[in-house]
């Protein structure tokens, strides 16, 4: 590619990014307001809310408090990549701090966290991204629709059961054999999405006046034709037969969580353009109503769940146990007497289901072998979906791929569900920055010093080529800044002092990839190549090294982002961002600039590039080495 | 013959330090350091910050009888009160909660027992001259939940598995093992420094630690890339043993490693200088410190640990073993009939002389060398016959 063209692409990226910074993603206010990144709690302070937790009027147990902290934390984290702080204070208070003015976001957190047991009646892959942007040629479509049965990665915060294949069965020795791990073929589930919800005639529940108004708005936003089409759907749209089938529903992908929430459950499930992300952003308590069918996400697939026949407070106790015969960890579950009757009824329904029942088809898609599965839903999350392997009239066991820790985690959550914890919202107050402006200034001074040192070193060592380093560092910094401002507004990405320090370091590491390139160039010129031929050759080799090394960093960032939560997730995001920007600068700026430089005469002069020195010393050496060789 | 100074030779990539040859020395040093670190983990453990261990939080009113307290005064007052009870306790920055007359400051300190907290509260009340009911103390949990740690560890394990798979595909399993060994060394050493010196472990430290992880592998990949290049087709020739070729690669990338290390450490040094020098404590110092220590070890271990581990592993491979034996046999034979012993040994060791002769368009190939067109050698592939002639990447 011509160097000019690469520079043009970079210019385009730059222009688009800064246009987005100034005009997209809800930009408002004056020129400087639009350039303001979203700063973190430690730098600008924020809003603090306290929640007093109680279990039936009593202060919760320590374990329940921990689970409550986790639930509040996952609710906060669902708001975006912001570094919130959630701590337990005293024995029953949870204090949540968020950066900036966040009253609105904190309002919703005090919703009680309830547990529901619901029959799983439908599964369909989360195909929103493919539905919105269908692949152009039709043949590739079959591979594009992700299968529900083989989700790539469990969503963060999913229970261990998400990766296991749990099954529930009557308690007692030997009764709890794990389900055979027959994984349905991806093709099967892609071409035959789950059956429609069990009761297509179920009328949507009466909505409150406020929700009705919102629903009317949503209907208008979607447009008449798409709305009617969505209402007519009786099953999820099958993208494997027609990859473009999702297009009429494109407008649904722009709905907010609250807007998705007022849609009938059937529609949430059937419309392919509604993603799991959108479902997760529904208000807390959105799927609490035991008398409604609801849609949730499990292992990256959308699942349709029946009315809740059994509730969390039907549970008497749950505990992790080591099964003596199989040597496996299981979670044992006891119900109160009234709850037991309901549970037996529910398990009978699940166990006796035949292949004609919709729940049967759905269960096979999540790995069950012959019976329906019951989803255990805590708050908005399906924490486990065991296949029912018997009519359970006594103590029940959930078996699966547990270890001691994950079994305890699940049983803690079940116990938590047994006694719903209520949160009473205390006053919301603004809090000041913990570090304050002087630390921010210090951080920026540190950045200036660090980059100054890198620049001095680069000029000293690489002479005029140092200016390429310097320019591209400046460019990296500008791109990073633009990305931060934009992401802060759209994704809630907040910049803490640690984040700033991280970006400073990443600039240093970005300078690394230059060194690799320049040292390689030196090698090539040392060999006696002309700059014109040395530059492409050095680039060819250095590119390989740079890509391999950066691939590892990207791998690290992606894995940590998917798996981890909280501050670590924020870190992974920042790291991934800086590496991608580094690669962008390497490919679209440094290489074309070097190619252009190589065509100038001054390039080889020792004073200019610091490369000629290699040549000069080399010309003196052959004589001496001859002597040595003789 | 006068050899150029070390700096110049470093610049030329011809420092010719025998690094891989002294691998026993490096392994001994590394083993000793690891033993010391692990000993320290067991005996001393880590100094966990309030974010991990939880602590005690004090709330004091902004408005006192003597006027309004500033954030700094509140912080210092709590620090005086807390350290009077427990001299080792840490105190975090104050935070103002609310506005107007009801506003208060909360200050978090290390965990105190109920009695200690009560005593500290008493001291605080006396110090500030406020009424006892305006000051409160509370136990606070860790802000960094166990779940965060668990998920981060899970993420790391998955990452390491994937990265090993990647290195096996990109390089080979021996290199993956060597890279992992050097990574573990870096992490253990960094943690060891924290444990031995007793630096406080904060969330910033953990974040820095994760950065070190990526950086350390980055560094090793750069070195191994060169090793792979130098040793491609090594068995076709018989001039160098695998260890020597690896050593050459290490020497050639030495300047690059030092450069990348220096360039990456300079901004970190800036952070540390400002963070520790001017502000005393806090996020900048925490991050600067862990990165400085970790990346420092990363640079060192990629040079003196990763490559030696690799060459020890490779020397076990039958093909390489046979090759090494052949090279040594040939060398012994040659040194007895062609050249004075000392000269020969030197040339065998100082491999760069071979290359230079090639680079300079040497017209008299040494015995055993295959004719190689000048343009067909890279410096890396240097020695004549190291690679089948004409093979070009």
Automatic annotation (TrEMBL), chain A:
Entry-linked SUPFAM superfamilies: Multidrug efflux transporter AcrB transmembrane domain (SSF82866)
Chief subcellular location: membrane
Keywords: Cell membrane, Membrane, Protein transport, Translocation, Transmembrane, Transmembrane helix, Transport
GO molecular function: protein-transporting ATPase activity
Gene Ontology BP, a term: protein targeting
Entry-linked PROSITE patterns: SSD
Membrane topology: Multi-pass membrane protein
Transmembrane segments: 442-461, 468-487, 493-518, 546-565, 571-589
Compositionally biased spans, kind Low complexity: 134-170, 178-203
Domain SSD: 465-596
Pfam families associated with the record: SecD_1st (PF21760), SecD_SecF_C (PF02355), SecDF_P1_head (PF22599)
Keyword Protein transport attached: yes
Compartments where located: Cell membrane
InterPro entries noted in UniProt: SecD (IPR005791), SecD/SecF_arch_bac (IPR022813), SecD_1st (IPR048631), SecD_SecF_C (IPR048634), SecD_SecF_C_bact (IPR055344), SecDF_P1_head (IPR054384), SSD (IPR000731)
GO CC annotations on file: plasma membrane
Record's function text: Part of the Sec protein translocase complex. Interacts with the SecYEG preprotein conducting channel. SecDF uses the proton motive force (PMF) to complete protein translocation after the ATP-dependent function of SecA.
Designated name of the protein: Protein translocase subunit SecD
Organism: Actinoplanes aureus
Gene: secD
Automatic annotation (TrEMBL), chain B:
Keywords on record: Cell membrane, Membrane, Protein transport, Translocation, Transmembrane, Transmembrane helix, Transport
Chain intervals for the UniProt region annotation (Disordered): 331-393
Chain ranges passing through the membrane: 25-43, 152-169, 176-199, 205-224, 262-281, 287-310
Molecular function (Gene Ontology), one example: protein-transporting ATPase activity
Compositional bias of kind Gly residues: 379-393
GO biological process entries: intracellular protein transmembrane transport; protein targeting; protein transport by the Sec complex
Residue stretches in coiled coil: none
Record membrane topology: Multi-pass membrane protein
GO cellular component: plasma membrane
Cell compartments where the protein resides: Cell membrane
Keyword Cell membrane appears in the UniProt entry: yes
Chief location bin: membrane
Lipid metabolism among keywords: no
Its job: Part of the Sec protein translocase complex. Interacts with the SecYEG preprotein conducting channel. SecDF uses the proton motive force (PMF) to complete protein translocation after the ATP-dependent function of SecA.
HAMAP family to which the protein is assigned, alphabetical: SecF_B
Family: Belongs to the SecD/SecF family. SecF subfamily.
PANTHER family found in the cross-reference section: PROTEIN TRANSLOCASE SUBUNIT SECF, PROTEIN-EXPORT MEMBRANE PROTEIN SEC
Protein name: Protein-export membrane protein SecF
Protein species of origin: Actinoplanes aureus
């Amino acid at each position: 590619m011509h160097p000019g063209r690469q520079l043009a692409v970079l210019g385009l990226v730059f222009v688009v990014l800064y246009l987005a910074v100034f005009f997209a993603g809800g930009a408002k206010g004056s020129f400087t307001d639009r350039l303001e990144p979203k700063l973190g709690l430690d730098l600008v302070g924020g809003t603090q809310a306290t929640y007093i937790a109680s279990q039936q009027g009593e202060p919760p147990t320590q374990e329940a408090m921990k689970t409550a902290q986790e639930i509040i934390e996952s609710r906060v984290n669902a708001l975006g990549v912001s570094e919130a702080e959630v701590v337990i204070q005293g024995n029953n208070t949870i204090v949540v701090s968020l950066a900036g003015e966040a009253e609105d976001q904190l309002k919703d957190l005090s919703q009680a966290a309830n547990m529901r047991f619901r029959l799983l009646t439908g599964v369909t892959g989360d195909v929103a991204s493919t539905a919105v942007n269908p692949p152009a040629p039709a043949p590739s479509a079959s591979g594009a629709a992700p299968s529900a049965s083989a989700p790539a990665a469990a969503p963060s915060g999913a229970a261990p059961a998400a990766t296991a294949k749990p099954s529930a069965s009557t308690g007692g020795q030997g009764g709890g054999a794990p389900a055979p791990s027959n994984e349905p073929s991806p093709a099967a589930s892609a071409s035959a999405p789950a059956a429609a919800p069990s009761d297509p005639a179920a009328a949507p529940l009466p909505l409150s006046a406020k929700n009705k108004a919102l629903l009317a708005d949503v209907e208008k936003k979607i447009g008449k034709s798409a709305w009617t089409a969505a209402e007519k759907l009786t099953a999820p749209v099958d993208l494997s037969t027609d990859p473009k089938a999702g297009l009429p529903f494109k407008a649904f992908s722009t709905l907010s969580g609250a807007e998705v929430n007022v849609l009938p459950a059937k529609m949430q499930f059937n419309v392919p353009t509604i993603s799991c992300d959108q479902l997760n952003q529904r208000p807390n308590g959105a799927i609490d109503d035991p008398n409604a069918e609801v849609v949730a996400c499990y292992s990256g697939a959308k699942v349709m769940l029946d009315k809740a026949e059994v509730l969390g407070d039907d549970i008497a106790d749950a505990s992790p146990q080591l099964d003596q015969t199989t040597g496996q960890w299981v979670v044992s579950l006891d119900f109160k007497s009234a709850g037991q009757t309901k549970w037996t009824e529910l398990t009978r329904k699940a166990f006796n289901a035949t292949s004609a029942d919709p729940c049967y088809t759905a269960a096979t898609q999540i790995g069950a072998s012959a019976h329906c599965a019951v989803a255990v839903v805590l708050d908005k999350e399906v924490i486990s979906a065991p296949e029912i392997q018997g009519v359970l009239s006594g103590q029940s066991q959930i078996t699966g791929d547990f270890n001691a820790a994950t079994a305890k985690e699940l049983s803690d959550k079940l116990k938590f569900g047994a006694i719903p914890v209520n949160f009473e919202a205390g006053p919301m107050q603004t809090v000041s920055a913990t570090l304050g402006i002087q630390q921010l200034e210090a951080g920026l001074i540190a950045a200036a010093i660090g980059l100054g040192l890198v620049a001095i070193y680069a000029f000293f060592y690489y002479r005029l080529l140092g200016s390429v380093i310097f320019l591209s560092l400046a460019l990296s910094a500008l791109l990073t800044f633009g990305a931060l401002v934009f992401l802060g507004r759209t994704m809630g990405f907040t910049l803490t002092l640690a984040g700033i320090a991280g970006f400073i370091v990443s600039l240093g590491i970005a300078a690394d990839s230059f060194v690799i390139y320049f040292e390689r160039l030196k090698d090539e010129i040392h060999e006696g190549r002309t700059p014109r031929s040395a530059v492409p050759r050095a680039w060819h080799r250095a590119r390989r090294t740079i890509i391999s090394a950066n691939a590892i960093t990207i791998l690290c960032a992606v894995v940590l982002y998917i798996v981890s939560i909280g501050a670590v997730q924020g870190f992974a995001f920042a790291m991934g961002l800086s590496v991608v920007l580094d690669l962008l600068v390497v490919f679209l700026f440094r290489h074309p600039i070097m190619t252009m430089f190589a065509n100038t005469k001054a390039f080889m002069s020792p004073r200019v590039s610091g490369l000629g020195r290699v040549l000069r010393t080399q010309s003196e050496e052959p004589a001496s080495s001859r002597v040595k060789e003789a | 013959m006068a050899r150029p100074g070390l700096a110049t030779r470093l610049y030329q990539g011809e420092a010719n330090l025998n690094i891989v040859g002294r691998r026993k020395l490096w392994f001994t040093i590394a083993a000793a350091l690891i033993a010391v670190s692990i000993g320290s983990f067991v005996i001393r453990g880590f100094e966990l910050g309030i974010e991990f261990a939880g602590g005690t939080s004090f709330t004091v009113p902004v408005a006192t009888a003597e006027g309004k307290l500033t954030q700094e005064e509140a912080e210092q007052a709590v620090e005086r009160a807390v350290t009077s009870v427990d001299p080792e306790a840490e105190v975090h920055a104050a935070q103002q909660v609310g506005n107007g007359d009801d506003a208060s400051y909360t200050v978090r300190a290390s965990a105190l027992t109920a009695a200690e907290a009560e005593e500290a509260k008493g001291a605080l009340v006396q110090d500030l001259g406020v009424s006892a009911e305006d000051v409160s103390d509370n136990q606070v949990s860790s802000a960094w939940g166990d779940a965060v740690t668990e998920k981060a560890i899970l993420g790391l394990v998955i990452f390491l598995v994937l990265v090993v798979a990647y290195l096996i595909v990109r390089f080979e399993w021996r290199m993956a093992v060597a890279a992992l060994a050097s990574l573990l060394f870096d992490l253990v050493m960094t943690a060891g420094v924290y444990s031995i010196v007793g630096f406080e472990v904060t969330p910033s430290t953990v974040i820095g630690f994760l950065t070190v992880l990526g950086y350390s592998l980055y560094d090793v990949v750069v070195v191994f890339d060169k090793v792979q290049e130098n040793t491609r087709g090594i068995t076709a020739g018989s001039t160098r043993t695998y260890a020597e070729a690896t050593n050459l690669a290490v020497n050639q990338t030495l300047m690059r490693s030092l450069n990348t290390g220096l360039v990456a450490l300079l901004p970190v040094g800036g952070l540390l200088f400002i963070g520790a020098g001017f502000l005393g404590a806090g996020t900048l110092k925490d991050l600067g410190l862990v990165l400085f220590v970790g990346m420092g070890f990363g640079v060192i271990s990629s040079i003196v640990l990763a490559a030696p581990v690799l060459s020890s592993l490779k020397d076990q491979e039958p093909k390489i073993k046979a090759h090494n034996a052949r090279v040594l046999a040939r060398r012994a034979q040659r040194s007895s009939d062609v050249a004075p012993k000392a000269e020969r040994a030197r040339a065998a060791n100082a491999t760069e002389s071979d290359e230079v002769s090639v680079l300079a368009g040497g017209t008299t190939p040494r015995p055993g060398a295959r004719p190689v067109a000048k343009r067909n050698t890279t410096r890396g592939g240097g020695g004549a016959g190291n690679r089948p002639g004409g093979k070009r990447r």
